[in-house]
Amino acid sequence: MAKLVDEFTLSFTVTSNGIISTSFVNCAQYAMRDRPTGHCRLCLQNRLLCDSHLMPRATYGLLRSPNRTNPNPVHITNGKDRVISSRQIKDYLLCEECERRFHSNGEDYVMANCYRGKNKFKLREALLRHIPMTSKLGISVYKAADIPEMDVTRLIYFAASIFWRASAHHWRIKNQIINISLGPYREELRRFLLGGAFPDTACLSFRVSKLEGFLLTIRTPASITEQGFHRHSFLMLGLEFLLFAGKLMPQGYRLSSAMPGGLVLMSERADDAMLQELGRAAGSPITSRL
Ligand SMILES: [Zn+2]
Questions:
Q1: Which of 4, 87, 164, 266 is most buried, by the most CB atoms less than 10 A from its CB?
Q2: Phi/psi zone of residue 145: left (φ > 0), alpha (ψ -120 to 50 degrees), beta?
Q3: Which of 176-185, 221-230, 264-273, 278-287 is predicted least confidently?
């Protein structure tokens, strides 16, 4: 069994506002001798590997619910299966440099601004302070560039990193295997995460929940095949991320996207669908909105 030691890698991030933030990367939490050396899946260099997570490690503390009979986090996997477990979805995948890259380019920002408990949801609060560009049929569309708190570059990087991680490895939790097939987009996203261009025939959208509660959940990446394109999505702590990929993807998806469209969505209809999904996963319907 690996021996825990108190070693952390401290990374510094200069935000878009010029503020220096710090974060600890847990790569070195296991004694050096217990970590394998191998090819980092992102940079492809032969290096000492970290025990990398599919979803951010910081989500697990937030997802525990002491008031439930089983307080452990609820994962919805493969779009339908419920797994309640204290286990974290992780494996040796990335080197320390690539772990730091993921933290500073997206994960630290997302974890600071996602739903963190009642009245602690900065991205929702930021959107509600602004007037949407359009709003109809329960869907509000915001221009990210008009909202200073919205660091769309980091949101996009974070989403791309999770979709890529889900495609680059077969992750396991209990009897579930989590993996999505991105075809050629896997390599294109890997290059994007190292500073390359975003794929021409894909777009990323994200939605901020308008709800004040029922948000302590994770739906791990899953895919749906549409006519001529693929839709991949995951949901965590009040944020839903969608990746549409394929040459026959409808133009409307690009126009309403965060990348390349620069837009952010808030949708009561999608919130209602999420509540139904959570109700099914919990084994009982959730009938009221908060
Ligand atoms: Zn690496």
A1: 164
A2: alpha
A3: 278-287
